[in-house]
Structures are given as C-alpha cells and as structure tokens.
Amino acid sequence: MTRLRVAFLGPLASFSHQATAESFGKISADLLPHASFAEAFAALQQKAVDYAVIPCENSTNGSVVQTLDLLADRDDSYRDVTVCGEYYLTVHHCLLARKGAYPGGWAGYDGSITKLYTHPQAWGQCETFLSRYFKGVERQDVSSTSKGAEIVSKETDEKGGAIASRFAAEYHGVDILQENIEDRADNTTRFLILRNVLAERTAQLEFEQPNPPTLDDRPTLETTHKTLISFTIDHSSAGALANALIIFKSHGLNLTSINTRPSLKKPWQYIFFVECGRTPSDENKDAVHKALNDLRQVTETCKDLGTWKDQLSANNA
Amino acid sequence: MTRLRVAFLGPLASFSHQATAESFGKISADLLPHASFAEAFAALQQKAVDYAVIPCENSTNGSVVQTLDLLADRDDSYRDVTVCGEYYLTVHHCLLARKGAYPGGWAGYDGSITKLYTHPQAWGQCETFLSRYFKGVERQDVSSTSKGAEIVSKETDEKGGAIASRFAAEYHGVDILQENIEDRADNTTRFLILRNVLAERTAQLEFEQPNPPTLDDRPTLETTHKTLISFTIDHSSAGALANALIIFKSHGLNLTSINTRPSLKKPWQYIFFVECGRTPSDENKDAVHKALNDLRQVTETCKDLGTWKDQLSANNA
After folding, report:
1. Exposure string (b/e) for B246-279, b if CB count within 10 Å is 16 or more?
2. Does the keyword Amino-acid biosynthesis apply (chains A, B) (predicted)?
3. Domains B1-91+187-199 and B94-178 share a fold
4. CATH number of A218-317
C-alpha cells in the first residue's frame, strides 16, 4: 500500500502542520501543505489526498467561519467530504532566537533583542510576557509564526527574536529562550480530520488519536461519539428551529455545540451546524440514524457531516 | 432638553455613520464617531452618550463577533447597556472620482483611472464590475471606504478612483461615476441601537425606524417584537442546552437566531445568544418575562439584553 497523503494549511511548521504530525504520528504518511482551506477540501474531494486536518474552533477566539463555510458546501463542491476524527492542540508559544545567539539561554539573556517577529494574533496571546520583558521593542508582523522562526534562523548580524511553537523552533533549527510565554495556558484549537466518504483507502482505518489533550477539560459526561449535522429550515414557519432541535433530545442525543452561517440564498436565513454527542449504551445505537430521518421531516435541507470518536469524553480518556 | 448624543464607529461617513444618520434622521441628535465598538459601549455605560448604533450581523459575512463579545460582557463592564432598536442598511457601493475630473460621468469615462482605493472587504464585494472595467488597475487598501473617498477628494494631478457609499461621496464632495457596482444587491448589515437602561433621557423615547428596509426580505410571520437573551449552561449535564431552548417554544416565542461565543472560563463552554420573536396576540404579553423565569431554573447565568420592534416583520411594514 502506498503511503497515506494528508493535507494541512501551510506553511511548513505551522500549527496545522503540528496538529497533523501529532494526530498522524504513529501512521506512515506524507504531510502536504496547502495554500488555503479550500484547496485542502478540493484535494480531498478529488482524492488527491486521503485526509485533511482543518482547524474548526479555538477555545478563545471561537469558530473558524471559513471552515464552516466550506462544510456548508453551498455549491455542492465537496459533497463527499466527511468528518472522521478530531484533534485538540494546545497552543504554546516560545521566544526563539538564532542558534547560538544566546548561549546562556534565558537565564543569561542580556536584553539585546531589538526586533520581534510573529503572526499578528500571537502578540495579543503573549501580552503579559511581552509587556514585562520587551516593552518598546519593535514588532514586525509576519504571515505565520513559522515564518517568524524562519526569518530569525537566517539572520547573521541582526538581533531578532520570534514567537512561535516548539515545533517551529525544531523545524527551523533555532534556539528556545523561553517556553510557554502565552497568557492563557488553556488556549486550544480543535481540528477536524476529514476524509472522502467514497475513498476505499481510508474506509477501514479507524482514526485513533495518539495524544489525548493534556488539560483537564473533559466533561464528566460519558459521550463517546460525536456527529455533525447541518440543516436549513423554513424561516417563515414559527417554531421550525425549536422543532428541529427538540428531535436531538427526543433521541437521547446531547447537543454539544450550535453554529450558524448565512445561507446566502436570502438574507437572515441560516445554515445551522449542530454537533451532538451519543452515550455508548446499547438502546440508542441507531439514535443518529433515527434523528436524521426525523430531521428530514422538519427541515428544508439536512446533511450528515460525519461521526467520530469524541476525544474529550471520559470514556476515551 | 439638550440634544441627544449618539455614538457610532468612525471615521465620519462610514457605513456606521450612515446607519446612524438614517436611523436618527428625524430626531435632532449629535452623531459622535468613536474609535472602537468597546469605546462606544463604554461611553454608553458612563452615560457620556444616549445611544450607540453598532453593527451586529451582515447578511453575507455573518455575525460580528466583536459585538457579541461586548454584549457577552464577561467582566460586567457594560451591565446597563440594553438593545432598544435595530436598523437594516443595504450596502451599496459607488465608483467615485475627484469633483469635475470626469465631466461626462460614466458615459464619457475614458479609462484613465490608474489607481483605486477602498477597504479590503469592498474589493471582493465589487468583483464583477472591477474585473470588467478595471482589470490590472493598481489597488490600494485603505482603512475604510470613507478614507478612500477622502483621498480622492484631495487629489490634484493623480487619476484615482474610490469605492465607497453615496453617503461618503456626498460627505467628501466627490463625483459618483457609477452607482450600485456591488455583486450582491441584497448585501445588508443589521445594526443594533443600544441605550443605557438607567438613563432617564432615553426611557420615554420609543425608537421608530424612519426608513424600513427596501428589499423584499420580510418573512410572512407576524412577529412584531424581538428579544435578545444570553445564557450559559452546565455543560456536564446532558440535555441542558435542549432544555433551555425548549422553554422558548413552550411560551410561544419563535427562535429567530442563535449565536455562540467562548465563555473564556473553561474551553468548549459557551455563552449562547438567542433571539426570539413574539407575535402581538394578547395571551402571550408576558411570554418573555415567563420564559426568562423558567430559563433561570435551567441555566447557570441568564441575561435579558433587551426587547425592540422587529423591523423585518410584516406588522411593521
């Protein structure tokens, strides 16, 4: 069998790359950077890759709307793309410098860095550390945290520092002066692992997460599988949304998240994304199947976007 | 009585300014630009202004998460801010040039514009027009569409064009070469009109929208009032979200939208924003009050964010 091919959002050594490397850590696979989420979805639909690993939500910033819009699939371009797994990556930032620039490390750091590089979002995530040790130091926005590490790795005379992950530091061969400089220790991004529902190569491979999340953020609920369903309703019918949501409860499915995106058919009409969890008891084995059947009676459109092992539930600990 | 003061997101002649001018068109008021949504909220909380007009949702791009985060009010900074109205602004773009630069207008346009200015989002909204008439012409991003109009208004020798609203054209005194150059005629932004619940100056002034939306996007439903409620639930309790949502239906309230934002207390726990509509029948006059009482039994926190006249419902046409 040829090696598996897995798409992620580049550049190399991005957080998406790290999540992909960790979630496919035990499986022999080629990890392939793509320039956009849409290109990764298209590659999967065309079976140019076997899987794609795409961020869908961050615990601080909320949902990734570009991912929801691709899952909404308003043009029916990605009809065979389905969710088969999830991966939680806790976002840790490090202060990085060129290899050997500060032989004593952080303990011996002399305050001589004159310019810092990182992605605009990372400044805000490391505010406490930066205002304590780097007040007034010039900040240069770059297109990714990985890019900042790369710039610093190629410096000769400059005194630059980058804020990026340990993964990016190792990839670009730079020194870590200080680890975990982020304000929130629990800032976590959830990635969805996607496959093509028609691809035989991935049909038999049950996705197992090698590294469970390190933080103690598991609810006590014994949910072991999650399902993502999108639907649209007749907005002119009073109670239509409530009627759809009640169906989940009536089949013993616990609603774990709800998102909406504009339908783009008519203003103020939405595509709803509902994630529901299922406990592993015997009597509700067909709960998702039955709920989908009922949903089709009260919705305008309704799509099953996949079922996968819940990585936060107690039973998978 | 001194004139009313109304806060909006600047600069002058922004879409927020236009929405504010139109919604307060018949009322004598000072319209005051603010540098951020947070500053407008703070001014309202401190009663430095009487109202604030803040975008909450766009029919193409979806919810404005910054506004939801301010309404979430995790630090209890804006406890007295409440929603008292809404206004729908259909986004129309025009091609603008310096006054007198093209006396024949669009009919006599000679193709000599060499540089275009607008906000990054507007390029994508006018793609069809731009690719037809301005292929290859240099594009300069600016911080707002109004800023683009201002730059063009001050040109002397350059051949610049701006993409902005008719409102910005009139404000900056530039010529409109072509109107309605946007791809989607129905691209609409919904603004919330906010007041301080403790302010006596605004207590008696029922907010009336002078210009109803021009597009035929009204559902046939006879909803006449909408209420926004935020709540958090115990995520470890199965069915907690469904139980909260069922309460709206049981009191005859129609769910018109649902949004979520991270709670920032614990990852994967959310603040829910539910908007519900109420028909004007007599028997459910206290429906919102009763629903809130019931909600408080099944939620961890629950906040009434205001009730206002639904501007899309048939009864207000």
Report:
1. bbbbebbbbbbbbbbbbbbeebbbbbbbbbbbbb
2. yes
3. yes
4. 3.30.70.260
What was the pLDDT predicted at A201?
81
Both tokens of residue A142? 């770059």
Name every chain A residue with its beta carbon within 8 A of the beta carbon of B246: 242, 245-246, 249
Q: What sign does the CA torsion over A198, A202, A207, A210 have?
A: negative
Across the interface, whether the CB atoms of A257 and B270 are under 8 A apart is answered: yes
Q: How far is CA B190 from CA A188, B90, B193, in A?
A: 31, 9, 10
Q: What is the ipTM of this complex?
A: 0.89
CA distance A293 to A7: 33
Tell me the residue type at B226: K
| A66 part of contact set with chain B, CB < 8 Å | no
Residues of B in contact with A220 (CB under 8 A): 236
Residue the block writes with tokens 């530039």: B174
Give the start-to-end residue ranges of the domains of chain B: 1-91+187-199, 94-178, 218-317
Model confidence pLDDT, tens digit, residues B196-213? 999 988 876 666 544 444
The residue type found at A206 is: E
Subunit contact A245:B242, Cβ cutoff 8 A: yes
Class of domain B1-91+187-199: alpha beta
Name the token pair of B123.
């390029």
Q: How many whole angstroms separate alpha carbon B194 and alpha carbon B297?
A: 28
CA dist A133 to A106, A109, A286, A315, B126, Å? 11, 11, 57, 43, 45
pLDDT value of position B138:
96
A212 contact B CB<8A: no
B314 in contact with A, Cβ within 8 Å: no
- Find chain B residues with C-beta within 8 A of A238's C-beta: 221, 254, 279
CATH 3.20.20.150 fits B94-178, yes or no: no
Q: What is the mean pLDDT of each run of 10 residues along chain A (317 residues)?
A: 90 96 87 97 97 96 96 97 96 96 92 95 94 95 96 92 97 97 95 94 61 43 82 88 92 93 94 89 79 96 94 63
